[in-house]
Predict the 3D structure of the following.
Amino acid sequence: MNPKIRWGILSTGSIADSFVRGLRFCPDAEITAVGSRTAAAADRFGARHGIPRRHPSYEALAADPNVDIVYIGTPHNLHCPNTLMCLEAGKPVLCEKPFALNAGQAERMIAAARSRRLFLMEAMWMRFIPAIRELRRLLADGVIGDVRMLEADFGFPAPFDPHGRLFDPALGGGALLDLGIYPISLAFWLFGPPSRVESLAVLGRTGVDEKSAALFGYENGRLAVLHFTLAADAPSGAVVMGTHGRIHVHPPIYRPERLSLVLKNLSGPASKPRPDWLRRLGRLSLPAPLRKAAAGHRDRPLAFPIRGNGYNYEAQEVMRCLRDGRLESADIPLDETLDIMRTLDRVRAPWGLKYPGEA
Ligand SMILES: NC(=O)c1ccc[n+]([C@@H]2O[C@H](COP(=O)([O-])OP(=O)(O)OC[C@H]3O[C@@H](n4cnc5c(N)ncnc54)[C@H](OP(=O)(O)O)[C@@H]3O)[C@@H](O)[C@H]2O)c1
């Protein structure tokens, strides 16, 4: 492999644009090629980002010997066919979220990567954001005691376009696949796979879920309350609740930079947690600002700044895996991606929502 990892960008839409800007923060990445459905779009995108090789089809990009890995940024319904095509051409793939329309598609994608011994990863960039990684560490350290509940959401009022990818059922439209994937992936990151799934949705003008909610129950008694919408201005954050306090994940949920730790006053004056709890916290290897916050200042946000635009973290993980010869990331393993897709299927099953051509 070359000293730099050579990326090929499949599609020229808005996320492809952001991802390429993220790659610019990775010194070991080189963007060698872009492929589009049209030569004109490939040329425009290539010129804008200084990408030398511009292909008039996705197939030509996948066949380019100057590409080590393909990033796929097409609408949800194309993730499966585009990924299969790249894998068949011998290229490792980083595929945008949601990984596929359903679990059946995800199974085929994963089987194709494994049988060819090629790297494949769901581009769930949230998992590589510093605050989200710190959150899991804090919970594992017992900072808020026994963790019992998660509340998470993502939503905004999207301008209605029946032919746009957010509302068109043929493109996998609806809040669940586009936005719900974040709170759901966060629930998996913190609590693992749920044993029980309940849900409710309001299907809108094009038949996709414009407002939806899911409740996950876990074998260990934990509960996750999750909601997503294309119809309202939602907080788009999360709260993890434990026996000794809670941690707020400040919005936006997909790239937070601040966490607030709120410790419950178990006895004594309002601002002071119980001494034995403070002693326990003192034994943990907490960063200094967090220790100070835990020692009595309520609701003080802790900053975990993002360096770059956020997409660089997932890109770095992909390149670490490729250099180490790993076929998947330990932080978003393919079996977990598949479990998430199965859970998305379970969430929408009671709604009767089907995406045309989702076989
Ligand atoms: N990780 C994130 O933060 C994030 C953020 C936004 C979106 N996404 C994901 O990225 C994917 C694309 O979202 P986007 O917002 O970038 O969409 P977009 O702006 O509409 O771009 C999608 C691109 O896909 C290609 N495409 C192929 N067939 C298409 C079709 N039938 N209709 C429209 N475009 C088609 C087009 O590129 P060519 O014309 O060059 O072929 C188009 O520019 C979605 O799956 C979404 O969930 C992820």
User: Anything to note?
Assistant: The chain has two domains: 5-126+309-332, 130-303. The radius of gyration is 21 Å. Residues 175-191 form the longest helix (17 residues).
